[in-house]
Design brief:
mainly alpha; 5 helices
């Protein structure tokens, strides 16, 4: 039966499909976190502007520091999910570069590797919510905006 596919071929197609779906999910989460950052800046700027416009609100300028901190948690949450996809790509990479994969390919034997999992649970601190929030590329913006709120409050009061 020349048309029938070996189990290995079917598994390789599934592995390829999983990698394509993971790549799309990672890109989608990049767009989401970019949008979260944009909204954080817009919302923070509007709250600072409103508080500065109204002299009676100057004493509450410090509260605007909460705005970027809330967005920081939201951004970190999406990045944590994204990291679980990245972790799965690493698992696949390790397997594809392993002797077990090479042996299965040479023999045409089925892969002894779970497929279509898409994500991997947090394995280390960098994959947890606090860990992702502490990435420099994430934390600098939000901590910087919160610090600016405090500085503006100190100047205005």
């Amino acid at each position: 039966m020349a048309d029938s596919k070996r189990l290995l071929d079917i598994q390789l197609e599934m592995l390829n499909a999983e990698l394509n779906h993971i790549g799309g999910a990672i890109r989608q989460h990049d767009e989401i976190t970019k949008s979260v950052k944009n909204w954080a800046v817009v919302t923070w700027t509007a709250s600072i502007g409103l508080a500065l416009k109204e002299p009676g609100l100057h004493r509450f300028l410090w509260i605007t520091a909460i705005v970027p901190l809330v967005f920081w948690v939201v951004d970190g949450s999406f990045r944590r999910i994204q990291r679980s996809f990245i972790g799965r790509v690493r698992e696949i990479s390790n397997f594809v570069n392993s002797p077990a994969f090479r042996t299965a390919g040479e023999k045409g034997a089925p892969l002894e590797f779970p497929l279509l999992l898409m994500r991997r649970k947090a394995a280390n601190f960098k994959d947890t919510l606090p860990g992702t929030m502490l990435f420099r590329s994430v934390s600098l913006l939000y901590v910087g905006l919160a610090a600016c709120s405090v500085v503006v409050w100190l100047i205005a009061k």
